[in-house]
Amino acid sequence: MATAIELDGKDVLSRFKQEFYQPDGRIYMDGNSLGLMSRRAEAKLVELMHSWKVFGIDGWTEGTHPWFTLAEEMSLQIAPMVGAKPHEVMVTGSITSNIHQMLSTVFLPTSERFAIVVDELNFPSDIYAVESHLRLRGLDPKTAMRKIPSKDGYTLEYEDIVSHLQEDVALLFLPSVLYRSGQLLPIRNITAAAHDKGILTAFDLAHSIGALPHELHKDGVDFAVWCHYKYMNSGPGGTGGLFIHERHHHLEPGHAGWFGSDKAKQFDMDHRFSKAEGAGAYQIGTPNIFSMAPLLGSLEMFEEAGMAAIREKSLKLTAMLRNLIKEQLPEFVDVTPNEDNSRGGHIALAHPEAARICKALKQAGVVPDFRSPNIIRLAPVAFYTSFCDVEETVSRLKNIMQEELYKNFTNERNVVA
Fold first, then answer.
1. Which helix (H) or strand (E) element contains residue 81?
2. What are the residue ranges in the chain where pLDDT is below 50?
3. What pLDDT does 334 receive?
4. Superfamily (CATH) of domain 4-30+307-408
């Protein structure tokens, strides 16, 4: 088996590590929660601020990246990453606001089809959004929102998903990668099974975009939403994105706004809404230019690296991480699926002392992520994590466990963990 040093020597993406700022020189294993700042992201933010300084209001139409078409410019770059046609993607809003926009647009319940199927492991914000749309339509979430149960508390089984596709279901809304365990769901198979029963499918790509390639158009997904501040490294609260399959582009946006207008007519100030073609119609308000700027720099690196190379390295990093933990730290339960095609970009470890172990890791110079009640998430990111970083992370974790250094901390999460 190749050593970490040998693997780093052969790593075609190793040059990107120097592009990122490493906080206090620590090993950063929390890129699936918030990606690191890159020098290119910083430069693009400065560049966009400079355009405001130099052009003022004319920045909307002048400069290297005119603000008026910035979202469309970036959407063209992201479309190949999610396997979409250019007009099916839009950089806009936040992940939750985009959920609301998509649900208000495509969720059209009838007396025969009114239920939305979710899963019991999903991120709370997605559940809150679904509940609100059911209530807005006079439906009771207790009966109209169906949660797919998890047999082990960490993952979902395909058979359990399919069993919930009943005749009264209008929409199936799932994460592409489960945020706790890192399980990657079979998007194509799930979508086909749902469509066979006349059910729309939607996916939250928060924990997969930037970590692995997608084929949303070919898979037939009806809509998808995501953020850009995890593996995409766009910064805290960075502008999100949405995909809506071209078969739905005839639909009026559930939440219409000025920036969803046909750009050729947007400044006519007509009170009659002229819907833009494609996913641009589902924008609402004025783009948040400075929240979008860092993504411009990040996208340059994704185009240079290619998603295939990123995914290949990510799988090698996570495989090395889990193998070392299995060999050296058997007290941890690895709850992430074993198969490459069933896991995203992080490894999830269950341990009853998870919260205090995470605190000890931070003190030891490793930044992990804790998820209540007992999960440690470690995300070696292809752009800025080396194989030696993975080896050193396990070494420090092993020392923490052997010396029981975690007992110096309380076993509860901080306000920010």
1. none
2. 416-417
3. 98
4. Aspartate Aminotransferase, domain 1 (3.90.1150.10)
